[in-house]
Specification:
This protein has 311 residues and is an all-alpha fold. The protein is built from 13 helices and 2 strands.
Length: 311
């Protein structure tokens, strides 16, 4: 087959592309050039604003001294961007520095606005990745399959945990859980019905993406259980694993009110120590936010400092 060549940045190899495949634009328009830096600025501002909301002394006082806790926490924090790096590495041969862009993508979603990270990563990919086609389709497909995979896992877990949720008398009516499950099911069904219109990647790539997302969900659930067990070792790890699974179910069902209270009730029923469990949840939420803030400041500054070098 006859090949064309995509113009690559100075010092990088040219990328062959089949005739008929849209090529990445050699000279991005002004808004594309400034899209990622603008979002990086927003991440930096949001991270600095969050600094005022954190009670650092109280947070540090609650943190366990065990090095194992920090190792597990950091691994669990890095798994989401690492899983996406694996996906885009397979799709685009994404370089190692793409991991930092995926970290910024997560921070944008967490401290700015949901799916703003996808906008940031799209802009970054247009400027930095030597691609044979526009990256929008791949970024879109990865986001859609992430939501769909999470929904499917949630439905399976709802079915498995329904007897426990029903018997705990936590204010969760069967009708409310049913409506929530219906919303989740509808989203997954729409993805399946309109997959040919919504998804643009080949079937083989879509299967790979779904498998990586599934592995991410399982890994983060298990690591969350291990973190809780390290903080409150009196309860068996199996109980915390059950709680981590149930927390995922409760957090993803869209119509349930007071989700933290529901989780506290589950924890009190299974392991007792309701006050300690509340502190545990607050600790991990605070540590995650603190990590967002510190990375947001560091990565925001580094991104903005390199803007001129990439123009």
């Amino acid at each position: 087959m006859k090949l064309e060549t995509v113009s690559a940045p100075l010092g990088s190899a040219a990328v062959p592309a089949p005739i008929g495949v849209p090529l990445v634009e050699q000279a991005p328009t002004s808004w594309r050039r400034w899209l990622a830096p603008a979002l990086s600025t927003a991440i930096l501002i949001a991270a600095l604003a969050q600094l005022r909301t954190l009670d650092w002394r109280a947070l540090i006082a609650m943190v366990p001294a065990s090095p194992l806790f920090w190792i597990v926490f950091l691994v669990s924090y890095l798994i989401p961007p690492a899983s996406e790096w694996v996906i885009f590495r397979a799709l685009w041969a994404l370089p190692g520095r793409g991991f930092l862009a995926l970290l910024r993508k997560r921070l944008s979603n967490e401290i700015l606005l949901g799916y703003s990270g996808e906008v940031y990563f799209y802009g970054w990919a247009r400027r930095n990745a030597a691609l044979v086609a526009a990256p929008f389709g791949a970024v879109k497909d990865v986001a859609i399959l992430s939501a769909a995979t999470g929904n499917i896992v949630t439905l399976v877990l709802v079915a498995a945990s329904w007897p426990l949720l029903r018997d705990l008398n936590l204010g969760l009516s069967a009708r409310l859980i049913g409506y929530s499950a219906a919303v989740v099911t509808a989203g997954s069904l729409l993805t399946m019905v309109f997959r040919k219109s919504l998804l643009s990647l080949p079937r083989r790539d879509l299967v790979m993406i779904a498998i990586v997302h599934l592995a991410r969900i399982i890994a983060t659930t298990v690591l969350t259980a291990i973190l809780w067990a390290l903080i409150l070792p009196a309860a068996p790890l199996s109980w915390w694993l059950m709680l981590a699974t149930l927390r995922m179910v409760v957090s993803r069902l869209p119509l349930l009110p007071n989700k933290d209270l529901v989780f506290a009730g589950l924890a009190a029923f299974l392991v007792g120590h309701r006050a300690q469990v509340t502190e545990l949840v607050s600790l991990l939420a605070g540590l995650t936010l603190a990590t967002h803030v510190l990375l947001g400041v560091g990565l925001g500054v580094s991104e903005l400092a390199g803007v001129e070098n990439r123009r």
